[in-house]
Amino acid sequence: MYEQMCKIRSFEEAANELYTSARMPGLAHLYIGEEAIAVGVCEALRRDDYITSTHRGHGHCLAKGAALDRMFAELLGKAPGYCRGKGGSMHIADQDTGNLGANAIVGGSAGIATGAALSIKMRGTDQVAVCFFGDGALGQGLLYEAMNMAQLWQLPVIYVCENNQYNEYTHNRETTAGSMLGRAQAFGLEAAEVDGQDVRAVFHTMQRLVARARRGEGPAFLLCHTYRFRGHHVGDIDRSFYRSAEEEAWWQTHRDPLKLLADWLMAEGGVEPPIFDRIQQTVRSEVEAAVQFALNAPYPDPSEVDRHVYA
Amino acid sequence: MSTPDVQYSISVRNPQGREITFAQAIREALAEEMRRDPRVFIIGEDVAEAGTVFKVLTGLVDEFGPERVIDSPISEAGITGMGVGAAITGMRPVVDIMFGDFITLTMDQMVNQAAKTHYMSGGKLKVPMVLRTTLGATRRSAAQHSQSLHAWFSHIPGLKVAIPATPYDAKGLMKTAIRDDNPVAIFEDKMLYQSKGPVPAEEYTLPFGVADIKRTGTDITLVATSSMVLVALEAAEKLAELGISAEVVDPRTTVPLDRETLIQSAKKTSRAIVIDEGYHSYGVTAELASVIADGAFYYLDAPVKRLGAMDVPVPFSPVLEDLTVPTAEQVVEMAKALCGRH
């Protein structure tokens, strides 16, 4: 799990570098600081379980098993990318690992994940579907339509809310009334709340929710409290108008999910510090090689432009 | 509730078959496809025991059970999104949206999700779902239950749109829609549900993107969609009495659109009127007229004319409502003027 989180962190840093050096087109929304949620959730899933993701979705995609090189290729709009360069950062889908797609509409995948769960139930398999979304999606009505039906029909879907506190540039105390957990509880969903910086807590809670969903005991809602270390997107550099540098520094110093796990492993598991350095080095060289692959990869042929409009 | 005062017997070039209603044709199509393919299911408001507000699905739940004919909450966006999710994971959902006006609530799921998933995934994910809904005014249902919004979906790459006019077309197009690997919206005119027409008892499907010439003629082409096909046929009868021979062409699907048949008919007759029940401005008629003007310009003796619904919210009062929808009389007057007959 440490290695997976490290991989996401390193991927995102490289994406930031590609973007700021003007080699990456479009938009990028970095997941740095929230790695424990993607990894904790996806470690509790099988390869054939489904996830739907968000505009901040690189971490979910990697945690579900996607390859670094094809992801970077997609970010750069290159032909070997997961979506042949037609999806980009906000739309990576990878059927082989059960990733039904990132979604650039906030809350837009609540119906899709729930429909996948309906499909699971109708086909009679024991898969589960996970819907990742941020606290901003709590303002979208679709989510509540979907949770209502999921509970009515006892569908194997788990709604994972990554509460990173900010709806783009606005703190959720200005956007979100009442109790976040209470919203799911009102529909009768099994609802749990965890420290989203603690990968072990996310994983153990998720294991329980996945097991009950597989047993046909219905949907669940997992609220993970976390923090977005960087801006809403990579271009969101000056953040002083909505949050303080002190606040950011405090989270980065005291609540970094990688550091928290490393500290625990050293204290409780007797893991020696050099191991973490070795993992970081290995991951970094993998990421560098993947970036090189993507930079050298060809752009799609122009004939691709009107392919795949229709199946 | 009155049934439309139009008979299919007037020159509709359908094959022989039993006479059944438009609603029966839709029901048969769904039942046959559900028997053929266990992945097909229906989800929507009041679709099971109620058989929908228009009774189109009556009896399906008895045969297929509530697991495949699913009564949903009143959550149009939710069930449309669930249709997308079920479709990309191996099912073939038919999402029932009671009134065409309510597709406004499905727009993100249809426009941003269903339509784009195949393309954005580089061709990996497919969305074989059907959204069936209604169009059409003259039922005195006022502005939020009377609109014809099929142009909205026709505008979006990735969606296919079928608008049948006869029971024969309705059944054949519905079966094709269910078997298609793309998201398809099928708009059924609620005033047509009780109208009858010949439908073969044998299995058949109708291809998308193939217009049907409902009546042949030599002097003017009337391109018409959905219930406006019946308006055009009625007008053609009246024009025949005046010695004007009108050809009636029904595109049957707006996406894909059979441009060639429209152009060939206009080249033959050298005049064209396009009739559709969507709002006049920026509507389906504009696209169809443009196709003809572009493809048959040097053959035309007059500009292509358009008839759509008036650009007003559909009024409740019967007297006012009737003014908003194209009529056979308007088509006749327009055709006479185009043909130089006053």
Automatic annotation (TrEMBL), chain B:
Residues 20-195 form the Transketolase-like pyrimidine-binding domain. Its cofactor is thiamine diphosphate. GO terms for molecular function: oxidoreductase activity. Pfam families: Transket_pyr, Transketolase_C. Keywords: Oxidoreductase, Thiamine pyrophosphate. InterPro entries: THDP-binding, Transketo_C/PFOR_II, Transketolase-like_Pyr-bd, Transketolase_C. NCBIfam families: PRK09212.1 (NF006667). PANTHER family: PYRUVATE DEHYDROGENASE E1 COMPONENT BETA SUBUNIT, PYRUVATE DEHYDROGENASE E1 COMPONENT SUBUNIT BETA. This is Alpha-ketoacid dehydrogenase subunit beta. It comes from Litorilinea aerophila. The lineage of its organism: Bacteria, Bacillati, Chloroflexota, Caldilineae, Caldilineales.
